[in-house]
Amino acid sequence: MTTDREKLVTLLRTRSLQTGDFVLASGRRSHYYIDCRRTTMHAEGLDVVGRLGLAALRERGWNADAVGGMTLGADPVAYAVALASIAAPPPVDAFTVRKVPKGHGAARRVEGCLWSGARVVVVEDVITTGGSALEAVRAVRDEGAEVLGVLAVVDRDEGGRAALESAGLSTISLLSVQELLQAGS
């Protein structure tokens, strides 16, 4: 019987992992790229990421009211965890952090279910330097939320976890890049 973790590795390897020459969002060059959205936006990927993400939060003892992070990579991760929580209460809501506030309407930077005093977990699809997660943390703290920690689907093991932890943020990932790369060896 295949576990959710094994399913996630398979989905990421077949749908998201690409080899070649890439420039990452951090500006760094890499011989591989993990387009996590090709897994986290896939029906089976949403299901697996939701269950694994929710389980990881609960194993860590993070009793979050909501999860979310920087759009676009964090969005499907947050929505998957929120949906999984319906089958395994208590429910966890989701929010999205925009790169810049909307120029119309309420002109909000954070959309969805976030309120002052909420206990939240910032989510990421892939952590490289930790910059996107730190930006999301600042945005939700500006809204008065308490950040319990950071959850990533994949940690590239390139200093992002260390940067987050040195900022006082407990960080967990569902997989490390080494686990993902070695799975096909």
Account of the protein in words:
- This protein is α/β, with parallel strands linked by helices and 185 residues long.
- The chain has one domain: 3-Layer(aba) Sandwich (Rossmann fold).
- Helix content is 40%, strand content 28%.
- The chain has seven helices and eight strands.
- It has helices at 4-16, 37-40, 43-60, 74-87, 131-142, 160-166, 177-182; strands spanning 17-23, 29-34, 66-70, 93-97, 110-112, 119-127, 146-155, 171-176.
- The strands form two sheets. Strands 5-4-3-6-7-8 form a six-stranded mixed β-sheet, sandwiched between helices. A two-stranded antiparallel ribbon has the order 1-2.
- α5 (131-142) links the parallel β6 (119-127) and β7.
- α1 (4-16) packs across α3 and α3 (43-60) packs across α4.
- The longest helix has 18 residues, at 43-60.
- The two termini are 21 Å apart.
- The model has no long low-confidence stretch (mean pLDDT 95).
